[in-house]
Design a protein that fits this description.
four-stranded mixed β-sheet, Collagenase (Catalytic Domain), 8 strands
Length: 232
């Protein structure tokens, strides 16, 4: 994809230099006795499945952020610029679609981090893969996920990587349209799959896609969902 020189999004926050990750302070927890303890444990486990960290409820201690400075390699910096360009592309595309509906598109934020970071949904970790947090309207991604796509899923190239970003933005669109709960209930990802038309639109304006769309879509269909979490 010829993406160099295109507009980058202003909605990107780079935490890669200081994302040592959240840690829980304080002593170990004691579950309440009886049914209350069982219910609390179930709630925490279910929330964890959806990427929300509620372990602070059991420790009674806030999550503290331990930050360390890390260097950024040229390859990582290139991936960051690419990610910002793709986010800008989704902003333009969805902005046009919402305008046709007589609405204003509220652009999501995107945070790039390493290892772990704080989110509006609790502690975010790279093992979760890229994810969207509806609580703060933000997409989170550890750029090492691109390497996992290539090495573990065989999904290499710009299209595969761009699909992942557009897929998570699709979940933001679901939230804006008020259909996210229904989509989760039915376990559907149709709007998130609107990322392919988004990238096709991008291609029509001069951005050439590398790789076969069919093969890339098959691989990224797995990459954009929790299946990758089991492989990390």
């Amino acid at each position: 994809m010829r993406w160099q020189g295109r507009r980058e999004s202003d909605n990107v926050e780079d935490r890669r230099n200081s994302s040592g990750g959240p840690s829980m302070g304080g002593p170990g927890f004691r579950l309440p006795s009886g049914k209350g303890g069982i219910i609390l444990l179930i709630v925490v486990l279910v929330a964890g499945y959806y990427g929300v960290d509620l372990t602070g409820l059991m420790t009674g201690q806030p999550i503290s952020q331990q930050e360390t400075t890390r260097s950024i390699s040229p390859n990582d910096d290139e991936a960051a610029k690419f990610t910002s360009v793709i986010l800008a592309t989704t902003e333009d595309t969805w902005g046009q679609q919402f305008e046709k509906m007589g609405r204003t598109y509220q652009q999501p934020k995107l945070v790039m981090y390493r290892g772990a970071t704080r989110t509006g949904c609790g502690a975010g970790q790279s093992v979760m893969g890229p994810f969207y947090c509806p609580a703060d309207g933000t997409v989170y991604i550890d750029l090492s996920f691109y390497d996992d796509m290539k090495n573990k899923l065989g999904a290499d190239g710009d299209f595969a990587q761009g699909y992942v970003i557009a897929h998570e933005v699709g979940h933001h669109v679901q939230k804006l349209l008020g259909i996210e709960p229904k989509v989760r209930q039915l376990q559907q990802d149709r709007i998130a799959s609107g990322s392919e038309p988004t990238l096709r639109t991008y291609g029509a304006t001069g951005g050439l896609l590398r790789g076969r769309l069919g093969a890339q879509h098959a691989a990224t269909g797995r990459a954009g969902n929790p299946a990758i979490w089991k492989k990390r």
